[in-house]
Amino acid sequence: MLLMSSSRDSYHHGRLADALEEAAFQLLERMPAAEISLREVARAADVSHNAPYHHFRDRRGLLTVLAERSMAGLNREVEAAINADEPAAGAAGASGATGAAGAAGTMDAAARLRAGAAAYIRFAVAHSHAFNVIYDPLVCIPTQPTKTMAPLIERLEQVLGETAGRAGFGDEAEVRALWGLVHGLGTLCAAGHFSEADAHAACDAAITRMLAGERAGQESALGSEATTGPAPAPGPDASASAGS
């Protein structure tokens, strides 16, 4: 008599890891990381309760993998929004400014900045548990990222920094202030403190004001240079005095 093998003993060693990670990630979409146990992952993957220990060192190892996968997902969504030809819903913000340039509908630098910020907020709201595990200091220890997480963090910082720079932001402190604001809006919105529409409107208003401040500062600096002009060259008397 032939028996159909159950999923508990049919996983090839290579597929077991994929099945466990996928089961854990599906659980993360429904519940906070703090509520996910290795036994729960085994149950969701329909494998023995000992099976996860062949892939995850312990529960923290499980959460680390979830954080890494979540960070990769956040990166993909932010980069896709920044590189898109048209702004996604929410990227225009309350003012309705998309920053579209030309008949082809391609976005300018400021519009791409808004699009990236909007994508960051959307991810925080749509995948709140995944977003939270990324920034859980007990999972991803600040200044001590894993070998997998480190390049993901560097990539996100690079993309956000370059996009903000092209839009007109100056030094690193200003870029950090901008993305701290965006992160805070996403976190508060995901926690239910205000609606997603309000978060996008606030983000758009803040970016508009910050960019206006940057432009005003640049224009003021240029005007000051034009008014004062270059410093006069020292006269012959000054040269003689300096040499004496």
From TrEMBL:
Residues 223-244 have a biased composition (Low complexity). Residues 14-74 form the HTH tetR-type domain. InterPro entries: Homeodomain-like_sf, HTH_TetR, MT1864/Rv1816-like_C, Tet_transcr_reg_TetR-rel_C_sf. GO terms for molecular function: DNA binding. Coiled coil: none annotated. Gene3D superfamilies: Tetracycline Repressor, domain 2. Keywords: DNA-binding, Transcription, Transcription regulation. It comes from the Bacteria. It holds the Pfam family TetR_C_33. This is TetR family transcriptional regulator. It comes from Leucobacter luti. The lineage of its organism: Bacteria, Bacillati, Actinomycetota, Actinomycetes, Micrococcales.
